[in-house]
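To illustrate the input format used throughout this study, we show a single complete record. The first block contains the structure-token representation of the backbone; no residue identities are included at this stage. The design step must infer an amino acid for every position from geometry alone.
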């Protein structure tokens, strides 16, 4: 029942948005963002219990494409300037590996740097919402572009230049907000359906086991 309600809500939102249709612009990612390589450490990180700087690594990029700040490594590092530190709204991009997706930083990690080989993306201006850009990079259109330009076989690599030249569709802000909202609803629906399937499986398993016991 709940899934039908969500689907109906999505259809209505899409219908009414088309009434007020506005042209979507196209631009290059490098024109609307600043893309920087992560900080290169000369030696392997040795986390400290009490450190002045947090470090965002590959392990901190959660499956739901958000940066998980709950267990960031902390170190002491001097001679860093303000432009080295990330802030909420920045995106962290997986530039190496089989998955070339981004994750958004929503929490404030304090003084934190992104470790290489990750890239980090910061929007210029306010014409694009960070949540929308994060969603767009992880969609089929952008993923196809990235996959077609990845270098390497066992270890895929996406260069900063490839990201700079990726075409981005930029709808009006109200359309971006709607897309973010609907994408969130879809994720909620998938989680609910997965939980229901898990509960159903456990219930059927218990019933079958009871039949075995009853002989």
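Output of the design step:
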């Amino acid at each position: 029942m709940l899934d039908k309600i969500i689907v109906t809500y999505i259809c209505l939102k899409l219908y009414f948005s088309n009434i007020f249709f506005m042209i979507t612009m196209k631009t290059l990612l490098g024109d609307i963002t600043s893309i920087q390589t992560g900080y290169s450490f000369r030696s392997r990180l040795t986390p400290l219990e009490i450190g002045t700087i947090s470090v965002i690594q590959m392990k901190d990029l959660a499956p739901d494409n958000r940066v998980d700040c709950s267990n960031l490594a902390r170190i002491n590092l001097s001679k860093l300037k303000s432009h080295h530190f990330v802030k909420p709204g920045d995106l962290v991009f997986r530039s190496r590996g089989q998955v070339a997706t981004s994750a958004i930083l929503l929490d404030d990690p304090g003084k934190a740097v992104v470790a290489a080989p990750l890239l980090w993306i910061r929007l210029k201006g306010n014409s694009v919402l960070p949540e929308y850009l994060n969603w767009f990079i992880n969609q089929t259109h952008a993923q196809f572009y990235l996959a077609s330009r990845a270098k390497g076989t066992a270890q895929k690599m996406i260069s900063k230049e490839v990201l700079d030249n990726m075409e981005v569709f930029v709808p009006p802000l109200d359309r971006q907000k709607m897309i973010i909202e609907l994408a969130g609803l879809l994720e909620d629906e998938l989680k609910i359906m997965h939980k229901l399937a898990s509960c159903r499986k456990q219930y059927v398993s218990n019933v079958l086991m009871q039949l075995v016991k009853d002989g």
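Structural context for interpreting the output: The chain has a mean pLDDT of 85. The CA atoms of residues 21 and 175 lie 9 Å apart.
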